[in-house]
Every structure is written in structure tokens, then in C-alpha cells.
């Protein structure tokens, strides 16, 4: 540092010196600034939320809504359509899955998640069978890109839902209904049987009360005397139900197969890809049947996973690496479980994995072998670093 | 390269807190000097600001607009030299621009500014033929100023005097506006050469001219640069260099505490309670968090507290990331970087306010420079204007999303004045605000450039050496914001730590 005699020769130094002295005398408390920042972030985007089950609502046979509240403090705000990644401890295995809120974001006292029984649904079935009022769970803060975006989604919205894929749409519909909205919303909801249609009564009521909301149920496995629309979502069906097809924004949520088919239908009808928002839900198809999966690697066998500096374990072929890590008690942060958020990024040091097509590793991450463990499936013994 | 641990009494020779630009270069410098170094990062990925993220099929650059100080093989700047030394240069692919930026003032001016002093002056004279003399005068002054400032402040010329360096002693503390008024009175020309105030953190009336001068000079001499794969490619390369040199990195591992006893660093405690002993810590966290949150108050000299309290939290930003489903040429975009101004707006409108429609912004779109940034037939566009976190911190939580989208909507409307049709091509969009920056950068006010760089806070008036033995700081909060200063600050901190470490080891 230069000495004072040097500075005094600089024009304007006297004023600056005065500034230095007075700002030191009348400074603000910076420790408060640090505190304010962390308080605000804790309120809006806490790393972890501790939630208590306040109510379990039977929607129907295999579907329940679980109402979650926070003991202390407010729930962080979310955008209709977003999810929380819920952690559960099932017989000592800590694992997590994302669940969309079905309640409207204007309802700030609780988050509702609506869970449907699925074959082999490790977490969903646990939530349905074992969760009791008063139980405490933890989750991430709300996240996700599947929500209305006022910057380019416009006023004409079409929602294509399959099964429990209706839950994020329910949040959006409830939000619009509670405020009365200038948006035209058409929900096209496909289920196997009429008995599987979740929120049917409420949706019918909203349709009665709001002329801007239209509700169409499509039943894929109807009984003989069923009178409504039947079959699958096809481009013909969409063309018959919708006008000005290319001017609308589409939200698709449901099982992967249904989502992909619906998206292709819309593309074939001339809808721009950016107008189609998609969130995959529910049972994901057997990964070993996907194109590109090495034939020699069979379900039913196991691969060895070595985590540097931690542990080595056997993982079943066909299971996402993230789930295997959870099972082995190796903690990796996660959120979206669909390859986009990158929280579950780990480094692959040895071996090979199969990536789901929509797993989005960054260009430079690929170069150094970083993978998203939620959408990577080991195809042999591997070594990773967390 | 020796990587064995030299001090058997501690877990690590040095611990680095934060894998931002400054933390990464500090960690790599120390590891490559043979120290056993642990780098702790609270997020799951390195880079701090220097990151990218995916939305849909677009990998968006989070923060790098133009990297300064790289230069060419024949004319290397300090960043190229630093990258070469560390091994980063072999691991990244650089893309250089011949254009600094376009300036567009609605209904008034549309000009492309090339990099290079002569080229820029020529281009300006072509658009402002009456101003030839003042343009030449300004550039002469700029280069003299930078040379003299460098000699007096960084070179510490012992013979420095008002006779030897008249420009330094007369103008070193002048505001940017004062220099403009004297040397470049034409307002449109001020907008042309002054738009980089966006990269340094204060409006012209309060911004000391040296910040703008050194920045502009560095881009003119060394050309703006990018990385294929974005700044994440740089961050990942630095981690790779660090690990190759024996460094250890832990992600998802924030630091709660730096243990200081009797004025000396003893170790750090991670958020998860894990303790690591060391005698040397380089903190890439904000100096506010480092001193006022992580260290016990009775170990922080009052002088430091007073000095921190005397400063002002620097500016943050609102950024709109757009993924568009068309070629950039379809929207008429050719320049990678343009500063857009409403008809009546001036330079200082680059500093916005959530309650008011934006009057100016910076638009970047690199797909013209390299085809590697977006998928084929698509392009990205990023709009940014600067905002203070304070203005966003007071917005109630239930109104925040509305304010964010309303402001972003107005920014898109501003950009559409110059490039109509943007909105119809949107495929993905993400908006970040000072609150977002607060979350991801963990800085007070979401500041992206550290403290506001007033004259009184110029580095020549204060020592950057910490009174706490074994503690070093790196990053924007000690050197001022931007990639170049942050990367360089880490090397400085790392070297200083190595020097002390080696001295202490020799003595004992």
C-alpha cells in the first residue's frame, strides 16, 4: 500500500479521505445484510422442508391426497404445477420421489400431494399404506419448470392429463378458478375407467361455474354401456375437440408413453415444440427395452457399484443409479428425477451407464464423465465419485 | 510436482471455501505448488457465477457475457497466461469476437463497435464525423490513463510523481462522468464507449474512471472471449487441473465456520459438522460472510468490521434467458452483444428498478460467433439489466413471481423494439433476479460484483492482507467484480498462502 504522502498529491484526495472517514463512522451493520440474505433464502428456497401430515383425504379406492403443513414458519411459495421432492424412510432405506402439488399456490397454509397406487410403486404405495396423520417427512423446496409462464404461454391453454398426471393441472385449474381468470382452459383427461378419474366432482363443478373452463374425459378401457368419449388421445380426437390448434399452449402430464404419443400428435398437427410443455409421470417403462440398451445386459442380474471413499454394493440391473445409491445408504441430493435439474450429478470414473434420452448433462460435464444419477443405469460394474 | 502433505499436524495444508472463479484458481495454484488442498463447495457443481444450466434443449450460460484479458497466442493477456500455466488452455476451446458490441438507441443510433483501438476510433469517426478530434483525444487519454494508473498503483513505481505521471495525479479519482464531460461531451459517444459500466458496477456519476478505463482497455487489447460449452467448461477444466495436481474437492459441503484462535487460522467446520484442521484458509465467500458470519466476533479486529460496514453492497441483476426456435439471422441478430437503449435513455439506465419499465439492457446472443451454443435451427438470447438486491428484498413473497414476470415481460418488449418477433419464437424462458442470485451465489443482496466500487473503496487505499494469520480472501469482494479480476485474485491469494506456508515450514 502507498503511503499518505503519495495520496495527498492526487487531486481530490482530501474529499475522498473525508469520505473514507465519514463512511467508517456512519457505516451500516453488514452482519445484518448477511443475516437478511440467508433469512430470505430460507423463507423462499429452504434447502430442506420439514413437513407434517395434517390430513389424509381419501379421493377414491387407490388415490389419496396427503395434506402437508409446516410446524414452524410459512410454507415457501410455489408456482402451480411445481413439485416437491419428498423423502421417506422405508424400512431404513431413505429415498425420495417428486410429487406435484395438487393444491393451488394461493392456499399457503398447506401443500396437498395426491398419490395413486401403482404396481411396484415403492414410495407411492408406502405413502398410501403406511403414512399416518401427525407423521413428519422432509422434502426439498418447490421446484420445476412445468407451470404456466405468462411470458409466452398466452391465454388459450390445453391440458392433456393421464391418470395421476392430473395433479399438477389440478393446481393450475384451482389457481385460475379461485381468482377467476381470463385464460381459456380445456382439460382433456384420459383414464382407463371412469372410476379412476380423480377430482371428477370438483372438475365438473368448476366447469359449471366457469365458462372459460372446459372438461373432457376420455376413457381408454370402457365398459360396454359407457356413453362418453372412449379410446386414446389421438390427433383425430384433438382435432375434433380443439379449434385453432396451433395458437394454444399445451401441458401434457402422465405416463411416459401417453406423454410421448400426445406430443407427437400435437407436433403432427403443426404445434410448435415450444408450445408443448411436458412432465413425465408414473410408471416408467422397463429401461432394458429402450433402444440402445445393450442386449447382453439382462434384468435380474446385478452390477457392482463402487463409490470412491465410501462403499461398494451390488445394484439390480434396470434400476436408476440414484435409487440404488439410496438403497445402499449413500446420500446424493436430488430433486426432479428426470435428468434436468442436475442436483444428482456424480462423476463416473470407471465403467459404462445407459442414459435416458432426456437426461440433460451439460456439454462440458459429458467431457469429464459427470452423469445425472437419476437417469443413468449402470450396464456393468462402475466406479463413481460423489 | 510434489503433492505430499508437508504439515503432519493438520488434515490439510490449506482449505479453500467456495469453488467460484477466485476459489478455483486459488485452489489450483496451491495444489500445483505441492500443497495438500481441500476445496469445499456448498453447491453440487463448481463455478459460482461461472456455470451453465439446462432448460428444455438449451444449455444456458448463467453469467459470462464476455471474458476479458485472454488475447491471442501472439498477444496473450494475463488470463491466457494464467490458463496456460494451470493447464486450462489445453482443456477448453476458446471462441473470440472481433466485435466489442453493438449500440442501439431507438430511433437515434445503430452502430457496431469493433475491438482494437484503431478500429474502434475509425468506426466511431465514421458515425460521428464532426467528433473526430474529441474521439482521438479520448482514446489518447484512455491509454495514457491506463498506463499511468498501472505504473502508479500496480507497478508501484517508486519515482511516481505528478511530474512523471500528470494524468494519474490529476484524474485518478475522477468520476467517469467527469472524464466524459471533459473529453467526450457528445452523449451518444458516451453511450458508445461507456456501456461497459454494466460490467463494473456503478453509474457514471459515482464510478471512478479507472474501472471503466481498465475494462474497456482490456477488451480493446485482448478481444472478448467465450468458451465452447460456456463458462462451465472453464470451471470444470479448473477442477480437473486441481484434482490432477492432487487436490481434493467436496461438493454439497458448505462451510459454517472458520476456526480462529489467537488471531491464527486453525481449521474450518462444514455445515454437516465435519471439522478439517488447517493453518491456511482461502475464502471465496463474500468478505462479509467470511468475517462476520464464519469467524467468532472476538477474533475479528474492529478495524475490519468498521471497514466492511463502511462499504455498500454492490449491484445484482435481472436476467432473462430465452431459448428461441429459430436461427438468430431470422430475427436480424448479428452482433453477439448489443446494448439497447430507449430513445431518451442514457448509459445509467442500464441500472434498473423493479417498479419501473426498463429503459436499457444488454442483449447477448452467441450463436453467430459459434454454432456450439444452441441446437441446430435454434438460438439463445440473454437480456440483462442491473438492479440492487435491496429493491427486491422488500417485495412480499406472494408478489415476487408477479413482479419478476412483469419486469421480464417489459425487458422482452424492449428487446422487441429492436428485434421484432422474439416473443413468437420463445421455446424456453427462465428469469433470474437479485433473489435468485442471492440463492445461488450466497452473496448479500445477490451482489454479482462484490461491493460498489466507489473512489473511497479503491484498492490502493486499503490493504488486502488479512490481519488474521493464515486467512486469505479471493473473489469479487476483495478485487471488484468480473471474471478477469476474480480469476486473478484467486491466483494472488493462492500464491500468498503458498509463500507463507513455505516460510513457516522452513522455519519450523
Q: Characteristics of this structure?
A:
heterodimer; A: 386 residues; alpha/beta; Elongation Factor Tu (Ef-tu), domain 3; Rossmann fold; Ubiquitin-like (UB roll); six-stranded parallel beta sheet; 10 helices; 25% helix; B: 508 residues; FAD/NAD(P)-binding domain; 3 domains; five-stranded parallel beta sheet; globular
Textual characterization of the structure:
The complex is a heterodimer of chains A (386) and B (508). Chain A is α/β, with parallel strands linked by helices and 386 residues long. Chain A has helices at residues 4-7, 13-25, 30-44, 122-130, 166-179, 200-209, 235-241, 256-268, 321-327, 363-368, and strands at residues 49-60, 63-69, 83-90, 93-100, 111-116, 136-139, 156-162, 184-191, 213-219, 229-230, 249-255, 276-281, 302-307, 312-316, 345-350, 353-355, 370-372, 376-378, 382-385. Chain A folds into 3 domains: 54-139, Translation factors (Elongation Factor Tu (Ef-tu), domain 3, Beta Barrel); 156-281, Rossmann fold (3-Layer(aba) Sandwich); 291-385, Ubiquitin-like (UB roll) (Roll), CATH 3.10.20. Chain A is built from 10 helices and 19 strands. Chain A has a 6-stranded antiparallel sheet. Chain A is globular and about 100 Å long. Chain B is an alpha/beta fold and 508 residues long. Chain B folds into 3 domains: 14-68 and 231-311 and 452-507, 3-Layer(bba) Sandwich (FAD/NAD(P)-binding domain); 118-222, no CATH class; 315-441, no CATH class. Helices cover 36% and strands 19% of the residues of chain B. Chain B is built from 16 helices and 19 strands. In chain B, the strands form 5 sheets. In chain B, strands 7-6-15-16-17-14-18 form a 7-stranded mixed sheet, with helices on both faces. A 5-stranded parallel sheet of chain B has the order 9-2-1-13-19, covered by helices on one side. Chain B has a 3-stranded antiparallel sheet with strand order 10-11-12, with no helix packed on it. In chain B, helix 1 (21-32) packs parallel to helix 9 (231-244) and helix 4 (132-154) packs across helix 8. Chain B starts with 13 loop residues before the first strand and ends with a helix. The model of chain B has no long low-confidence stretch (mean pLDDT 95). Chains A and B meet through helix 2, helix 3 and helix 10 of A and strand 3, helix 5, helix 9, helix 10 and helix 11 of B.
Amino acid at each position: 500500500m502507498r503511503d499518505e504522502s503519495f495520496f495527498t498529491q492526487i487531486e481530490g484526495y482530501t474529499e475522498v479521505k473525508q469520505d473514507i472517514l465519514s463512511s467508517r463512522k456512519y457505516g451500516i451493520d453488514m452482519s445484518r445484510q448477511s443475516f437478511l440474505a440467508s433469512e430470505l433464502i430460507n423463507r423462499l428456497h429452504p434447502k430442506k422442508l420439514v413437513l407434517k401430515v395434517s390430513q389424509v383425504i381419501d379421493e377414491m379406492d387407490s388415490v389419496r391426497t396427503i395434506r402437508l403443513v409446516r410446524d414452524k414458519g410459512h410454507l415457501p411459495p410455489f408456482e402451480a404445477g411445481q413439485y416437491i421432492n419428498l423423502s421417506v424412510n422405508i424400512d431404513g432405506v431413505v429415498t425420495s420421489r417428486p410429487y406435484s402439488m395438487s393444491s393451488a399456490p394461493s392456499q399457503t397454509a398447506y401443500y396437498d400431494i395426491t398419490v395413486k397406487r401403482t404396481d411396484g410403486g415403492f414410495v407411492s404405495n408406502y405413502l398410501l399404506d403406511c403414512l399416518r396423520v401427525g407423521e413428519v417427512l422432509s422434502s426439498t423446496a418447490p421446484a420445476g419448470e412445468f407451470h404456466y409462464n405468462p411470458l409466452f404461454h398466452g391465454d388459450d391453454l390445453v391440458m392433456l392429463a393421464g391418470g395421476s398426471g392430473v395433479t399438477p393441472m389440478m393446481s393450475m385449474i384451482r389457481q385460475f378458478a379461485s381468482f377467476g381468470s381470463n385464460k381459456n382452459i380445456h382439460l382433456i383427461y384420459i383414464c382407463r375407467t371412469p372410476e379412476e378419474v380423480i377430482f371428477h366432482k370438483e372438475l365438473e363443478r368448476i366447469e359449471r361455474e366457469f365458462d372459460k373452463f372446459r372438461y373432457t374425459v376420455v376413457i381408454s378401457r370402457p365398459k360396454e354401456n359407457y356413453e362418453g368419449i372412449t379410446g386414446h388421445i389421438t390427433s383425430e380426437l384433438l382435432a375434433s375437440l380443439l379449434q385453432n390448434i396451433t395458437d394454444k399452449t399445451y401441458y401434457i402430464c402422465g405416463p411416459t408413453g401417453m406423454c410421448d404419443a400426445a406430443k407427437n400428435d400435437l407436433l403432427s398437427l403443426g404445434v410448435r415444440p415450444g408450445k408443448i410443455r411436458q412432465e413425465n409421470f408414473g410408471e416408467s417403462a422397463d429401461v432394458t427395452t429402450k433402444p440402445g440398451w445393450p442386449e447382453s445386459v439382462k434384468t435380474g442380474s446385478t452390477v457392482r457399484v463402487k463409490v470412491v471413499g465410501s462403499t461398494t454394493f451390488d445394484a439390480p440391473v434396470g434400476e436408476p443409479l440414484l435409487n440404488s445409491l439410496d438403497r445402499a445408504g449413500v446420500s446424493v441430493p436430488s430433486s426432479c428425477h428426470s435428468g434436468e435439474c442436475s442436483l444428482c450429478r456424480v462423476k463416473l470414473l470407471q465403467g459404462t451407464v445407459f442414459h435416458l434420452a432426456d437426461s440433460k448433462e451439460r456439454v462440458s460435464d459429458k467431457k469429464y464423465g459427470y452423469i445425472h444419477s437419476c437417469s443413468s443405469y449402470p450396464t456393468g460394474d462402475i466406479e463413481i465419485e460423489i | 510436482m510434489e503433492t505430499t502433505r508437508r504439515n503432519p499436524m493438520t488434515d490439510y495444508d490449506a482449505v479453500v471455501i467456495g469453488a467460484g472463479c477466485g476459489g478455483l484458481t486459488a485452489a489450483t495454484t496451491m495444489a500445483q505448488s505441492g500443497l495438500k488442498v481441500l476445496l469445499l463447495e456448498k453447491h453440487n457443481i463448481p463455478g459460482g457465477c461461472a456455470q451453465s444450466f439446462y432448460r428444455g434443449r438449451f444449455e444456458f450460460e448463467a453469467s459470462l457475457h464476455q471474458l476479458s484479458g485472454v488475447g491471442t497466442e501472439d498477444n496473450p493477456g494475463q488470463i491466457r497466461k494464467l490458463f496456460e500455466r494451470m493447464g486450462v488452455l489445453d482443456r477448453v476451446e476458446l471462441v473470440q469476437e472481433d466485435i466489442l458490441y453493438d449500440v442501439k438507441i431507438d430511433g437515434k443510433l445503430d452502430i457496431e463497435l469493433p475491438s482494437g483501438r484503431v478500429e474502434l476510433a475509425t468506426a466511431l469517426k465514421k458515425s460521428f464525423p464532426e467528433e473526430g478530434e474529441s474521439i482521438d483525444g479520448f482514446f489518447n487519454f484512455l491509454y495514457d490513463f491506463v498506463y499511468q494508473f498501472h505504473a502508479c498503483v500496480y507497478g508501484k513505481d517508486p519515482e511516481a510523481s505528478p511530474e512523471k505521471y500528470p494524468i494519474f495525479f490529476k484524474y485518478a479519482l475522477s468520476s467517469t462522468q467527469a472524464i466524459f464531460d471533459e473529453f467526450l461531451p457528445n452523449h451518444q459517444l458516451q453511450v458508445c464507449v461507456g456501456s461497459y459500466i454494466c460490467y463494473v458496477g456503478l453509474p457514471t456519476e459515482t464510478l471512478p474512471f479507472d474501472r471503466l478505463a481498465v475494462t474497456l482497455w482490456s477488451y480493446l487489447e485482448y478481444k472478448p472471449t467465450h468458451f465452447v460449452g460456456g463458462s462451465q467448461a472453464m470451471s470444470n477444466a479448473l477442477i480437473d487441473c486441481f484434482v490432477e495436481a492432487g487436490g481434493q474437492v467436496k461438493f454439497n459441503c458448505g462451510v459454517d465456520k472458520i476456526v480462529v484462535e489467537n488471531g491464527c487460522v486453525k481449521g474450518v467446520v462444514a455445515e454437516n459438522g465435519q471439522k478439517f484442521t488447517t493453518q491456511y484458509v482461502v475464502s471465496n465467500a463474500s468478505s462479509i460472510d467470511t468475517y462476520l458470519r464464519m469467524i467468532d466476533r472476538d477474533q475479528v479486529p474492529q478495524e475490519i468490521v468498521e471497514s466492511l460496514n463502511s462499504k455498500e453492497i454492490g449491484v445484482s441483476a435481472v436476467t432473462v434467458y430465452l431459448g428461441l426456435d429459430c436461427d438468430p439471422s431470422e430475427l436480424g441478430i448479428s452482433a453477439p452483444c448489443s446494448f439497447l437503449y430507449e430513445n431518451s435513455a442514457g448509459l445509467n439506465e442500464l441500472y434498473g428498478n423493479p417498479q419501473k419499465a426498463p429503459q436499457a439492457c444488454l442483449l447477448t446472443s452467441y450463436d453467430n460467433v459459434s454454432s456450439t451454443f444452441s441446437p441446430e435451427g435454434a438460438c439463445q438470447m440473454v437480456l440483462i439489466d442491473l438492479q440492487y438486491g435491496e429493491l427486491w428484498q422488500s417485495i412480499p413473497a406472494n408478489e415476487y413471481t408477479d413482479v419478476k414476470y412483469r419486469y421480464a415481460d417489459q425487458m422482452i418488449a424492449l428487446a422487441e423494439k429492436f428485434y421484432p418477433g422474439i416473443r413468437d419464437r420463445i421455446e424456453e424462458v427462465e428469469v433470474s433476479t437479485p433473489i435468485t442470485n442471492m440463492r445461488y451465489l450466497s452473496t448479500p443482496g445477490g451482489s454479482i460484483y462484490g461491493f460498489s466500487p466507489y473512489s473511497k473503496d479503491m484498492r490502493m487505499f486499503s490493504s488486502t492482507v488479512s490481519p488474521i494469520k493464515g486467512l486469505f480472501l479471493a473473489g469479487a469482494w476483495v478485487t471488484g467484480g468480473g471474471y478477469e479480476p476474480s480469476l486473478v485474485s484467486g491466483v494472488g491469494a493462492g500464491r500468498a498462502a503458498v509463500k507463507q506456508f513455505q516460510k513457516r515450514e522452513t522455519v519450523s
